[in-house]
Amino acid sequence: MEQHNNQPNKPPQDNDKKPKGSIWLPLIISLAIVLVISGIYNMVSRSQYTETTYTEFRQAMDSGNLSEVEMRYDRIIYMTKEEDQKPASQRKAFYTGLPNGDALALAEELYQLGFKVYQPIVEDNSLITMILYNALMFGVIFLFMRMLTKRMTGDGMMGGFGKSKAKVYMEKQTGVTFKDVAGQDEAKESLQEIIDFLHNPQKYTEIGAKLPKGALLVGSPGTGKTLLAKAVAGEADVPFFSISGSDFVEMFVGMGASRVRDLFQQAAKVAPCIVFIDEIDAVGRSRDSRYGGNTEQEQTLNQLLGEIDGFDSSKGIVCLAATNRPEILDKALLRPGRFDRRIIVDKPNLQGRLDTLKVHTRKIKLSEDVDLQKIAQATAGAVGADLANLVNEAALRAVRQGRKTVNQEDLMVSFEVVIAGTEKKNTVLTDTEKRMVAYHEVGHALVAALEKRADPVTKITIVPHTSGALGYTMYTPEEEKFLSTKDELLVDLRTVLGGRAAEQVVFGAKTTGAANDIQRATSLAKHMVTLYGMSDELGLMAPAAVQHQYLEGQAYLDCSQETAATVDREVQKILDTCYEDAKRVLTENRALLDEIAEFLLVKETITGEELMAYVNAAKSDAAPCATDEDFDEE
Ligand code: ADP
Ligand code: ZN
């Protein structure tokens, strides 16, 4: 009830000022343009012709002195033979008014003499025509001006010139609630207070508690930040304004700041409400030069800071902003009273992914065989947007195939479309190539299967994908892991290098297919040395710092050249050791490797269970005799 009282209270004067301003201005401008144009037109036509009396014209006509005549609706323009003889630069043309009443007769006469005659229009009509003509011109110009002012926002050049609301996007009711946001429980909890406040600001103001003006949602793209902001609006049942930070800066100079002002003005009218600024880093990046700000962006940022300080949070405006690079934000934005709350929106874990899949399959008819748990397991690292996309792809596939329900296969295939690239059956591999790919993939899978505890692989395939991969091995994370020990990382490294190791062990050759593996392995080893303090030589020293923690988390070296050389050496050492280990594991299990690779060559795609059947059979065959001893020192 509180929120509805606010609405009609303050804005009335504002309300009727606005539309007037935006119509009157183009109106006046077009009027001025029309006046100026017709003035100029008159001046030009005056200066071109010399005015004479009608009698003079009549005389010239009667004496046969006319060389050219043009009869217009309001005048007669003519040229005499005398003038015709003069050089072109001195020649003069004349004009005179129409004769009173007998314009038609004159036209007839001139026509008979063989002159050009336009339909003469009687004098009182000519006034109307002129008015019509000018009105038409006015109309066209006016429409044009209106269009122009609609396109332009802000008041860069002419105070208040066209305050268009383009791109500010407002929803009265978002219709999204927390039920639509899967997982993200911690974020929801932090946002609960804001909802409570929007419901009942008085409860807070009575005690004298100051309310948060804003909160910053931090997380990777597609994790549902926008969705959460909408859900807050939906839960609190208030309007939702949203604009993207990049919208502020892409426009003309000076526009950004006035957009900010505009946005908050609009928001104030319908408060309580949520103002959501997506990609705030586009405007809010630090003003020091390291990240290259510019004056336009600074102005916009200053305006934004001003607006945030300016609005009275007891009115019920809450500003939410989203970013994936909080570290580049200007410190001023993060000061108390501004975006001082930071809400982390993480990539979903297994349970989160399962919930997200459930949310998105709510409205989709699923067939009995669908096992969302499996999909969730297979999609480690995927964000909410990926999963939403995956479900939609699956539904589309079901429709394409003329089915009424979505089945597990649809979901698995879509997983490959969305996350691994589409299956491409027409890339033809020679038999040797195929063998190499098969051994390479089994190399990965076998190292993983022998070194890790649970079932590590869900699928191995040598069907080429459009992404360029000739085959791939899909791993299942045994459980969500937040911590990895050094040993686990080493196992990962051996697994990644297992592909190349198999090539070497079986064919004695190195292929280009391992390029991606090698990059991944190198990057992992680098992290171990430079960030996790896991190398022998450097010990606990971390010679690198992490940038963009919420994007890819790239690390850059920040150390002396000697240290950098040591880093390289250590990385090399780790990689070499892991590679040798992988080769050793595969050599020891060569029979198993051959067996599985042959099976894969026949079937092209095998499941994790099939793989484990081979591995477990081999394990129980081989007595627990010492496998390590034969190849002890490598
Ligand atoms: P962001 O703003 O973080 O880039 P969005 O909020 O725009 O991500 O998410 C894009 C889409 O992904 C949403 O519209 C929604 O369909 C889906 N999505 C993302 N996260 C979730 C989630 N936690 N629960 C349900 N759907 C989600
Ligand atoms: Zn590989």
List descriptors:
634 residues; alpha/beta; Signal recognition particle alu RNA binding heterodimer, srp9/1; Rossmann fold; Helicase, Ruva Protein, domain 3; 4 domains; 5-stranded mixed beta sheet; 24 helices; 16 strands; elongated; binds adenosine-5'-diphosphate; binds zinc ion
| Beta-strand content estimate | 5-15%
Distinct ligands, ions and cofactors found in the model: adenosine-5'-diphosphate, zinc ion
The structural domain count equals 4
What's the story with the biggest beta sheet? Answer: 6 strands, mixed
CATH class of the largest domain: Mainly Alpha
What Rg do the Cα atoms give? 39 Å
SS element count, helices: 24
The CATH topology annotation of the largest domain reads as: Methane Monooxygenase Hydroxylase, Chain G, domain 1
What is the overall silhouette?
elongated
The CATH architecture assignment of the largest domain turns out to be: Up-down Bundle
CATH superfamily placement of the largest domain? Peptidase M41
Model description:
With 634 residues, this protein is of the alpha/beta class. It has 4 domains: 118 residues, Signal recognition particle alu RNA binding heterodimer, srp9/1; 178 residues, P-loop containing nucleotide triphosphate hydrolases (Rossmann fold, 3-Layer(aba) Sandwich), CATH 3.40.50; 69 residues, Helicase, Ruva Protein, domain 3 (Orthogonal Bundle), CATH 1.10.8; 191 residues, Methane Monooxygenase Hydroxylase, Chain G, domain 1 (Up-down Bundle). The protein is built from 24 helices and 16 strands. The strands form 4 sheets. A 6-stranded mixed beta sheet has the order 6-8-9-10-7-11. The chain has a 5-stranded mixed beta sheet with strand order 1-4-3-2-5. It has a 3-stranded antiparallel beta sheet with strand order 13-12-16. Strand 14 and strand 15 form a beta hairpin. Helix 15 packs across helix 16 and helix 19 runs antiparallel to helix 20. The protein is elongated, with a radius of gyration of 39 Å. The two termini are 78 Å apart. The N terminus and C terminus are likely disordered. Zinc ion (ZN) binds next to helix 19.
